[in-house]
């Protein structure tokens, strides 16, 4: 007899297997919903705070100190970065070559954003390819420094966690 044939034994086995999956999924869902309900507010708030620090190029530990001495759109000393947080003294260079990873994240994200940007302009707004790329050049030129800094802030905030006690120190300054 073939192995997968629908005999009574096979049929029972299939049902048992299905029941095991159902139990596993139900228990898993119940446990994770409970965890989520308990921690939801904390996680969401933390995530919003982290995101705000990334977009504003702020220190990962205190979310108060600036990572860069000049404005992103001033184009003045675009790649100069503080070595330590001016507010809480957190080290912005935890190890040599720390921002190597930021480069890869920046590369991956910018590739998708640029692709999406040109697709929207060319396919949805019906601009010519040349015009789409022209607009892309302008947007990239304007956001170049901001994006470089965002990648670094993103990486620092991703690796280094927020420390509430440091925020208190930074706020007192
Ligand atoms: Zn700081």
UniProtKB/TrEMBL annotation:
It comes from the Bacteria. Keywords: Membrane, Transmembrane, Transmembrane helix. The chain crosses the membrane at residues 21-37, 98-120, 127-148. The keyword Membrane applies. It holds the Pfam family DUF983. InterPro entries: Casein_kinase_II_beta-like (IPR035991), DUF983 (IPR009325). GO terms for molecular function: protein kinase regulator activity. The keyword GTP-binding does not apply. GO terms for cellular component: protein kinase CK2 complex. This is DUF983 domain-containing protein. It comes from Neolewinella agarilytica.
């Amino acid at each position: 007899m073939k192995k997968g044939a629908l005999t009574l034994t096979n049929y029972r086995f299939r049902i048992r297997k299905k029941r095991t999956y159902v139990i596993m999924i139900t228990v898993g869902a119940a446990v994770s919903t409970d965890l989520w309900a308990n921690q939801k507010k904390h996680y969401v708030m933390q995530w919003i705070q982290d995101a705000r620090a990334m977009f504003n190029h702020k220190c990962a530990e205190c979310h108060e100190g600036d990572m860069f001495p000049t404005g992103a759109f001033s184009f003045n000393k675009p790649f100069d970065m503080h070595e330590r947080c001016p507010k809480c003294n957190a080290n912005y260079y935890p190890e040599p070559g720390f921002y190597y990873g930021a480069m890869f994240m920046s590369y991956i994200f910018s590739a998708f954003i640029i692709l999406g940007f040109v697709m929207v302009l060319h396919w949805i707004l019906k601009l010519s390819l040349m015009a789409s790329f022209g607009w892309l050049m302008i947007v990239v030129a304007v956001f170049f420094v901001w994006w470089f800094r965002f990648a670094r802030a993103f990486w620092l905030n991703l690796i280094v966690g927020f420390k509430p006690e440091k925020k208190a120190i930074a706020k007192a300054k």
